[in-house]
Design goal:
211 residues; alpha/beta; four-stranded parallel β-sheet; two-stranded antiparallel ribbon; 7 helices; 8 strands; 17% strand; globular
């Protein structure tokens, strides 16, 4: 029997959420879907990608009341602190605002003899392993620029904040980000290690301790 990934609420010690981890085969299928979807996503105009990602962030803000209460049950942050929306919005808006300049080709030489420039290519599939302590802000720190920069993204959130991944996926998909371009998946440690060892991704963003 598959061992469930559980979020044990620090509020009263009960199981707040539980999910079955993906099998290695199912996880590999998710990666294949993300890789197949990335090309069409990369072909969309930059302004469209920014608009869709910002709409996803707006959807999270619209769901603030539910999110703040869920955070309290999952990781113990009191509701009076209101979640992470200040930092989330500030960082997301900043990254969207600098995207056109940051992703533009760097002109090295434009003379009568040579035209040389450095162009930026997407990594392909970006894997985000997010922590529980600031589960929205730290995850979106990578998700927002990765999607804007033409990558597809797979999120594996911490077991203590299982529901956060669900909410991010709901918000982005409702905004119009294709379901294969952004995927929230549940993995155990061995499943996560296997995907990374198999070099499934073009980039891995991990936030957490050495252990």
């Amino acid at each position: 029997m598959t061992k469930m990934i559980q979020c044990i609420s620090p509020v009263e010690g009960r199981v707040y959420a539980a999910r079955a981890p993906l099998s290695p085969e199912a996880a590999a299928t998710c990666v294949a879907r993300a890789r197949a979807a990335q090309g069409a996503w990369a072909g969309r105009p930059l302004a469209d990608r920014i608009k869709l990602v910002q709409a996803g962030v707006a959807n999270l803000n619209a769901d603030k009341d539910r999110i703040v209460e869920e955070l309290a049950w999952q990781m113990g942050r009191p509701t009076r602190f209101g979640g992470e929306f200040g930092g989330l919005n500030e960082r997301s808006n900043y990254m969207a605002g600098i995207a056109a300049e940051a992703l533009a080709p760097m002109v090295v030489e434009d003379s009568g003899t040579f035209a040389r420039r450095i162009e930026f290519a997407p990594h392909g599939v970006v894997f985000v392993v997010a922590p529980w302590n600031y589960p929205y802000m730290t995850a979106m720190n990578t998700i927002v620029p990765a999607l804007i920069a033409r990558n597809s993204v797979i999120l594996k959130h911490a077991s203590q904040t299982l529901v956060v991944g669900d909410r991010i996926a709901e918000a982005l998909h409702k905004a119009g980000v294709p379901e294969d371009v952004f995927q929230n998946i549940v993995l155990d440690h061995s499943g996560t290690e296997k995907l990374i060892a198999d070099r499934s991704f073009g980039f891995v963003n991990f936030t957490g301790s050495v252990g």
